[in-house]
Amino acid sequence: MARDMSDKDILKMELDQLKKEVSTSRTAVSASVKETIDFVEATSAEDPLIKGVPEDKNPFKEKGGCIIT
């Protein structure tokens, strides 16, 4: 895509992207971490990675074994 564009067009795209990034609101990591911890603790009871998946609802459960005779 960049090969089809002039240097001026590429610089304009970069400038537009930088303007978007500058206007993005920032949050302190300490505040974000607290919110993330609260969210994880609140939803951990339903999280299948923590709680596990019931055998009857596990789509990856082996349907049968392999028998070599």
Automatic annotation (TrEMBL):
Keywords: Cell membrane, Coiled coil, Lipoprotein, Membrane, Methylation, Prenylation, Transducer. PROSITE patterns: G_PROTEIN_GAMMA (PS50058). It comes from Denticeps clupeoides (denticle herring). SMART domains: G_gamma, GGL. It is found in: Cell membrane. GO terms for biological process: G protein-coupled receptor signaling pathway. Pfam families: G-gamma. Residues 1-69 form the G protein gamma domain. Guanine nucleotide-binding proteins (G proteins) are involved as a modulator or transducer in various transmembrane signaling systems. The beta and gamma chains are required for the GTPase activity, for replacement of GDP by GTP, and for G protein-effector interaction. GO terms for molecular function: G-protein beta-subunit binding. G proteins are composed of 3 units; alpha, beta and gamma. This is Guanine nucleotide-binding protein subunit gamma. Residues 1-28 form a coiled coil. The keyword Lipoprotein applies. The keyword Cell membrane applies. One of its GO terms (cellular component) is heterotrimeric G-protein complex. It is a lipid-anchor. Belongs to the G protein gamma family.
